[in-house]
Design a protein that fits this description.
- With 369 residues, the protein is α/β, with parallel strands linked by helices.
- 53% of the residues lie in helices and 12% in strands.
- It has 15 helices and seven strands.
- A five-stranded parallel β-sheet has the order 2-1-3-4-5, sandwiched between helices. A two-stranded parallel sheet has the order 6-7.
- Strand 3, helix 3 and strand 4 form a beta-alpha-beta unit.
- Helix 2 packs parallel to helix 3 and helix 3 packs across helix 6.
- The chain is extended.
- About 4% of the residues have low confidence.
Amino acid sequence: MEHTTTRARIGLFATGLDTYWNQFEGLRDHLNAYRAEIVAGIERTGNVEVVDGGMVDSPEKALSAASLLARREVDLVFLYVATYCLSSTILPVAQRIGCPVIVLNLQPSAAIDYRKINALGDRGRMTGMWLENCQACSVPEIANVFNRAGLHYDIVTGYLKDASAWEQIGEWVAAAKVYRGMRENRLGILGHYYGGMLDVYTDITRQSAVFGTHLEMLEMCELKRFREQLTEDDVNAKLKEFEGVDIKDLQGQITKLQGDLKAKDDEYAAKEADRVFMDSIKEAVKTAGGRNEKAVIAMLDIDALKESKNQSADIKKALEDVKKSDGYLFGANEPINNAVGGTNISGGADPGADDVSAIRAAMGLPEKK
């Protein structure tokens, strides 16, 4: 029996500027090595085909990469910002591929080694090494152009060995696998829904439009007819397809898959609980008048509050304690006693009136009646 599993098709291209290569020796080779590292990392996620568009450093190469990615019908494209690039080189690719674009803002390492750069002693070599770490400088320009062009995108920020960044990349690849699987599958709908149950109907048009799924409609009477037409030879032929299948191995795979799914569910539930908890902390800090959210949270025992049986009350008390010990982190509660001109608190003459008259005169405006 033949087993097939859907493979996601992931596109990738790196960005650069062709005028750099003759100016900075070795720069292009280093950036292409980083690109190859990203390709290998995506392939390690398993069951995926990477379509590598190479280094896009000119308008001509942009069109060539766009043609390749569109022709191969990729499910998702990672745009690796290898160094500074012109947004006019990137836009044609994103416009032509017809799939989500994920901008990879990944430095080679967690921080630039400035001591190494300064020790080079040559301005050209120093600039070349800086450009090798210049991923973030292009991201705002690319994002702004995509926004104005109405293109959907997302950004992953980190460095090449960053576990958090690769976790995000893995999640995007997993989503692409689901998308391709939905697009290539056939979904059967047997019979009809019970009349009047409007909230449970399947929107067949939307299912096909969003995922590209082929839906097969089947009535119960048709199923009965197919069953009656089956012969013993048909049944034996179908059973023969299972010959050689290791049932225990198959059951083991199913058990492992169930365990993996439960682990993912538990991980998601834990992350969601953390998100809800932190949202409640941030809201409490805001309500308490915290000037700087991060600074106030840093003063709290987050682990203890997370384990609390009465989080709301304990969070409030913890913030009150911080306010007593470090009041500068919170806004003042007392009213402003030093009112400036223009408030006219006593109902008398406005002390700022002369200033307003002077400003109007300087602008050539007539006096206010």
